[in-house]
Amino acid sequence: MHTKKPKGRLGTLIELLLVSTKLGLTSFGGPIAHLGYFHHEYIRRRKWLDERSYADLVALCQFLPGPASSQVGIGIGLMRAGLLGGLVAWIGFTLPSVIALILFALLLQGGDIAGADWIHGLKIVAVAIVAHAIMGMGQKLAPDRNRATIAVAAAVFSLLSPSAWSQVLLIVCAGLIGLWLYHRQNGTAVEAAPMEVPVSRKFGAFCLALFLVLLISLPLLRQWTSASGGADGIGSGGGGEILALFDSFYRSGSLVFGGGHVVLPLLEREVVPTGWVSSEQFLAGYGATQAVPGPLFTFASYLGMMADGVLGAVVATIAIFLPAFLLIVGALPFWSSLRTSPKVQGALAGVNAAVVGILLAALYNPLWTTAILAPADFALAAVLFGMLAFWKLPPWIVVVTGALGCLLLGQL
User: Fold this and answer.
1) Cα dihedral: 51, 57, 62, 67 (round 10)
2) SS3 string of 307-371?
3) Taking Cα atoms as reference points, which of 354, 344, 345, 347 lies closest to residue 149?
4) Among the listed residues 365, 357, 355, the one whose alpha carbon sits nearest the alpha carbon of residue 149
5) Tens digits of residue pLDDT in 227-250
6) Residue 387: its pLDDT value, please?
C-alpha cells in the first residue's frame, strides 16, 4: 500500500516534512479532527498506510498515554522514514502551533479571541472533517452487523460516560468482544498488510525502559536539587529551575489518557500554584491555544514562554512530548508482529469498530455541541462536507472556506 518514495533518504524526509508541516498549518479542531486530517492526507491521498494499518495504529495510540494524534503522526513518520522520519513528522506537525503560541505569549497575553467568527468557522470545519473520516472508516472497519453494533455501543457508552478511563475500558472490552467473535473466523477483518517498522525490538525495549526511568528519576532529582539549595521558581535560569520545569511537563505528558484537553488540569496544578504562571495568564493561553492548528499539547510552549522565555518554551515543549515519542517508538516494534496473530486480529476487529464509535461520539461532543449552534452553522457544515466527500477538494481549501464563510455569516 505504500506509494513509491522519492529517490534517496533526503527526498523522503523533505516530502515528509512538507506534508506534516502542511497538516500542522491546517489541522484545526483538536485530536479527533487531527485524525481525520491525517486519514485524508496520509491514507486517502498518499496511501502511505492501508486503512487497517492506520486503524491499528490509532488503536495502539488510544492505549498509550499522551497526545494520540501526535503519536499517530510520529508513528506514520517512523514507518515512512525511520527514527528521523518520526522526528521530522513531529516537528512539521508541531512547530507551527509552537511558534504561534510563543507569539501569543509575547503579543496577545490576556487577549480574548476564542469568540471570533473565524475561529467558530474553524470549529465547523472540524465537524465536516470528522464526519468525512467517520464515513470512510465506518465503511472499512464496521461493515457487518456485529462490528456496526460494537461501533454504536461504543458511541453510546462514550457519550454517557465521557471520561478518559472509560474510554480505555471501552477499548479493552471491545477487544475482548472482537476476540470472542472473530478469533476463529477468516476474512471477517480487513486483511492486514505488513506494517514496516524500521526499529528493532531491542531499541524499542530501551525506549520503554527510558520512559520509566525518567518518570521515576526526574521527581527524585528535582527533590534532591531543591534540598541542595535550588528552588522551583523560574526565571533565574539555573539548572535546578530548568529541571523542575522539565519534570513538571514530562510527568504531565506521561500521565494523560484521553487527549489534549485532559492535560489541562494537570498543567494547571503544576504551573499556577508554583507561581510560574498566573491563573489569568493560564486561561488566556488556553483560549489562544484553541485558535491555532496542531496539537493541544503545544499549550506547554505558551506556559514555558510565560515562565522562562524562549528557553522555557523549548524545555516545556520537549518535555511534554518526549513521553509520547518514547512510548510510540518503544511499542511499535512489538505491535507490528502482535497485530498479525489471529487472536490479536480478532481483538483488533472489535477495537477498530470501537474507534469508529468513539469518533462518532466525539463528532457530537465536543465538536457538534460547540460548533453547530444555529441552522446557518449546519448549512455551512453541509457545504464543507460536500466539498470533502463529493467534490474531493483539498482540506486547506475547506479550512479557508469555513473561516471566511463564518465571517460572512457573522455580518448578516
Assistant:
1) -110
2) HHHHHHHHHHHHHHHHHHHHHHHHHHHHHHHHCCCHHHHHHHHHHHHHHHHHHHHHHHHHHHHHH
3) 354
4) 357
5) 665 544 555 455 678 999 999 999
6) 94
